[in-house]
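Note to self: user wants both folds in one dump. Writing first protein now.
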Amino acid sequence: MDTPLFLGFAVAYLVLLVWGVRQASRHGWWTPANLPLLVVAALVYDNLVLGIGRWIGEGSLLEGLNLARYWIHAAITPVLVAWALHTLRRAGFSWAQARWYQVASIAASLALTVAEYFLEVQGLTLEPQQEFGVLSYNSTEPASGPPLMVLVVAAFLVVAGALLWKKQGWPWLFVGAVIMTIGSGVEVPVDSGAITNLFELVLLVSIMATKSFQDRRTTSV
């Protein structure tokens, strides 16, 4: 059953969140470098709701908790675009220091949020679904492949990861983003609905490790 897996993912993300908060306390809070903390916190919630759904049972409470998952995903995930572009500023690319670049980073994230609202959230209706021992509420519209927003975010992360690898000799953001991209696009022959969440965890570990790496480099300069 997938229930222990989702609960395990929630714990793993909670550990990542604590690590990230400790980093932010040492290196400063008011910086785009901390944007992944929002995503990690959202994934704690997401996996926890999936993990405890069978004990809550069908009804308005579980439906509301799952509806919030969709809204949080649409609002929070696009900030990874702004974060990915910010890593290039931190890496020292001269063209990434311009004011227009900062504005474009924010605009790209906002555009993705708006697009996700109209494509996935507006008019959303949910129905109960039980799969591999997990009870949740999912969209009544059948999925036709990975969401557009996920693919766009992954593309930004892959490109940023490749540039960081070349500039700073740090390959792990690129590796994590590629693993997530492949995992989202390829059907893995495993009897589990939690496999995509495993790829997400790999990506977020690579993101938080990248943040830590750049924090250390900034401090040592």
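First done. Writing the second protein, which came from a different request thread.
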Amino acid sequence: MNPYSAPDDFRRMICYVDIEHERILQDPEKRSTHLAQCMDVKLRLEEISGEACLVQRYSHVTRQRLSEWGIRALIISGNATDWAEYGEADLAEMCHIIRAAELPILGLCGGCQLIAIAHGAPVGPMRRLDNEEEGACPDSAADDFKEWGFLPVRILKSDPLFDGLGQEPILFEDHCWELKETPPGFEVLASTDVCRIQAIRHTGPLVYGTQFHPERYTQEHADGRKLLANFFKLAGILG
């Protein structure tokens, strides 16, 4: 199952940008899992937005192609690879697209961190695990602390992105890195006790970043779906 596709026409659509490092795709076992995850997100975004969702590798996304494809909004994926493994030149075009913000943008986890990087704000590991402290994620053997699972996120500032979600929506966390500072031109919208910057919004163009994963919602924990629908309303895609 391959979620990557080239548009066969020029109808308007949304674009899910996969920013995972190439080495993940070169590992047969990890590639299969990763592609399945991309397909799952594609189908979820299409169901919520009512638009076709084009899935593209970040290295294939350019300003010209976004214009040619008639893209209405960008959703930037998360990633499991440390940013030190990426070359600055590899991310240059995506960073330019983020700074220009000619389209509504929503960055998810690593996508939120890429928004910060594009605007010159530092990102890094949250902290090391204390002696004898176990990580929250059962599949993680790393020494870094990881915020993981469906957890309450505290809303600090009222924003249409959180309409209908109350003061502490339950959203999926899966990260050991975080934004160390608020990017210039952005404001912090949400926080948790262990991660101060959980959601950001640009004060000008429609650019959001979430450290959590709204796309990983379930029937029992559906707040992420509502948040994505709110974003598509703000982007003018949903009525």
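Dump finished. Worth passing along: Residues 13-234 form a domain with the Rossmann fold fold (CATH 3.40.50.880).
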